[in-house]
Specification:
This protein is of the alpha/beta class. It has a single domain, classed as Rossmann fold. The chain contains eight helices and seven strands, in the order ααβαβαββαβαβααβ. Helix 3 links the parallel strand 1 and strand 2. Bound molecules: S-adenosylmethionine. S-adenosylmethionine binds next to helix 3, strand 2 and helix 5. The site of S-adenosylmethionine has 22 residues, from helix 3, strand 2 and helix 5.
Length: 234
């Protein structure tokens, strides 16, 4: 199962990289991408603050499906300490690339279904657009279960993923009801964020303000940012 998933993901990301080579779609010099990243970061920090996290300096953090480590590096810019940051990804090349870029963090090539960590060993477990790339419901459930296992009882899961992406049939959006099924018996705080990327790409260079206004309406937002907390049995 894991081998099939690995081959599928490897092919999918190799195609994606080929398609995007030379494009500025994911460059911060592209105003639309800069807008999306900065908005997401403001919303992440606000949501963490709402859940009583106002610094990351002593937090042990794991990203499941970390790719090349870009999200973890953004947490460093928020004050997280590199030696407390761990990333896991199924694709070997991505893990090697991440380790080369960020040698002080710890990256491991592993399946999120079997995280190579002890129970209750992280304060924060994050997933950014990894679940939407897993098409098999059983695998998603296993990954979610293992994320809970490695989370401390008072820890938080930070989730960012889309619920709608009609342009990529190799991914599947995830709505709140499914998130609740993946993490049963937890507490959830949902935010519908990120103005639809195709629209942002048309508008951001012309009017940042218009993007902000439309995003505030939430109707055209394509992602959910979520805090998930385990509930202690009474
Ligand atoms: C869209 S990328 C996101 C990368 C990174 N989180 C980011 O936002 O830049 C999704 C990543 O999840 C990884 N992934 C998917 N299923 C996985 C699994 N079962 N275990 C570990 N990694 C997985 C893929 O290999 C891929 O690198």
């Amino acid at each position: 199962m894991s081998h099939d998933l690995k081959t599928f993901l490897q092919d999918e990301y190799a195609h994606r990289e080929e398609r995007l080579s030379g494009s500025d779609l994911y460059s911060v010099f592209n105003p639309a991408y800069l807008y999306m990243v900065q908005q997401r970061q403001r919303q992440e920090l606000a949501l963490l603050r709402r859940h009583d996290i106002d610094h990351l300096k002593d937090k042990r953090i794991l990203e499941v499906g970390c790719g090349r480590g870009g999200i973890l590096s953004s947490l460093v810019s928020f004050g997280a300490r590199q030696h407390l940051l761990h990333g896991v990804d199924l694709i070997h090349d991505r893990v090697v690339g991440a380790q080369q870029r960020f040698p002080a963090m710890q990256f491991t090539c592993a399946d999120g279904q079997r995280l190579p960590y002890a129970a209750a060993s992280f304060d924060l477990v994050v997933q950014y657009t990894a679940f939407s790339s897993i098409l098999d419901d059983h695998i998603k459930a296993q990954v979610a279960q293992d994320m809970r296992r490695v989370l401390r009882p008072d820890g938080l899961i930070l989730w960012y993923d889309f619920w709608l992406n009609p342009s990529n049939p190799q991914t599947r959006g995830i709505r709140p009801a499914e998130i609740k099924r993946l993490f049963p018996g937890c507490r959830y705080d949902f935010r519908r964020v990120t103005l639809a990327p195709p629209l942002t790409r048309k508008l951001a260079a012309r009017s940042w303000m218009l993007c902000l206004l439309l995003e505030k309406l939430r109707l055209l937002n394509t992602h959910y940012l979520v805090i998930i907390q385990k509930q202690e049995p009474h």
